[in-house]
Amino acid sequence: WQIIALGVVAFMLVKGLAIYIIARILGSSRPAAAERAVLMGQGGEFAFVLYTTAVSAGIIDGPTNAIFTATVIISMVLTPLAIIVMRYLTPTAKVSMDGIEVAENLTGSVLIIGFGRFGQIVSQPLLAMRHSVSIIDNDPEMIRPASQIGFKVYYGDGTRLDVLRAAGAATADVILVCTDKKEETTKIAELIGHEFPLAKVMARAFDRGHAIELVKVGVEYQVRELLESALTFGGEVIKVLGASDQEAAEVVEGVRSRDTERFELQMLGGGMLAGRHLLINNAAEQARESGRQVSEDAVREAIESNGVAEKPA
Fold first, then answer.
1. Which of 82, 172, 95, 104 lies closest to 141 in space, CA to CA?
2. What does pTM read for this prediction?
3. What residues are paired with 46 via a beta bridge?
């Protein structure tokens, strides 16, 4: 075991050092080169093939093969721990706040929290109608590009009550929570509902389960981030396949209506499987295409099985 332990240390140090030097030669920064060295300092699966071939060719014996193999395996096991240690020991780079203003005494009638792809699109109808809009985001790397295309975005963490007050949440008519992390979105929506009950809260939902969660904490309106784009996409697909504009619109509206009904059933406490009969399922069609005789009971069983396996959308 002493030989194996020394072998692991020597192997990872030598390989890591070689990777670090090569990365630096190729222009990587010191932190980036160090990260690559740690990530790639382990042995690879090809070593097992190489050692087996070497044993077959008589280059190494069985005990040596066992030592080499154990060295590689242990190096692979230790790599995640080495990454954790490196990230713990490496100081976090300080984010520059140059040119970025902190939210303070904002007075917009609409407050947008989170200005990524979703928030940027949401802002357009509001600005087109000349509404007074205040925008905050907690990522300087998102704020700077926004300023380059004409947006004034203030720095602020929407999960903090003092920041919400400084951003004008107390006087805003509507607060739009457009953050992309569902836990953060829920926390912000709940905080606003508790501290600023007069403001209408509208939020971006990650998925169906998150949408239900947001409704339960008092959000007035929520939209699943992929729902409308997926419906639009599906409508365009069936038009390509021959449906008229009117037919496509009717089909999409029908699907939207079924989805709404299903959501309401789930809100009543039926869980994520409530309303699964409203899904338009392909189980029966797939069975027919495979040439099998399908009974009504089999179709029902297939649909129910598919519903049980369903992930919330």
1. 95
2. 0.64
3. none
Task: Indicate the pLDDT class of residue 35, thresholds 50, 70 and 90.
Answer: confident
Report pLDDT digits (tens) over 204-233.
999 999 999 999 999 999 999 989 999 999
Three-state SS string over 250-299 comes to HHHHHHHHHHHHHHHHHHHHHCCCCCHHHCCCCHHHHHHHCCCCCCHHHH
Q: What is the dihedral of CA 10, 13, 17, 19, to 10 degrees?
A: 100
Give percent helix, percent strand, percent coil of the chain, each to the nearest 5.
Answer: 60, 10, 30
Q: Which two tokens stand for residue 47?
A: 């070593």
Q: Tokens 């099998």 map to which residue?
A: 292
Which whole-number Å values give the CA distances from 284 to 290, 300, 302, 311, in the listed order?
Answer: 10, 9, 7, 20
Q: Extract the tokens encoding 239.
A: 């038009």
Which one of 3.40.50.720, 3.40.640.10, 3.40.50.1110, 3.40.50.2000 gives the CATH number of domain 110-225? 3.40.50.720
Tokens of 220: 């007035």
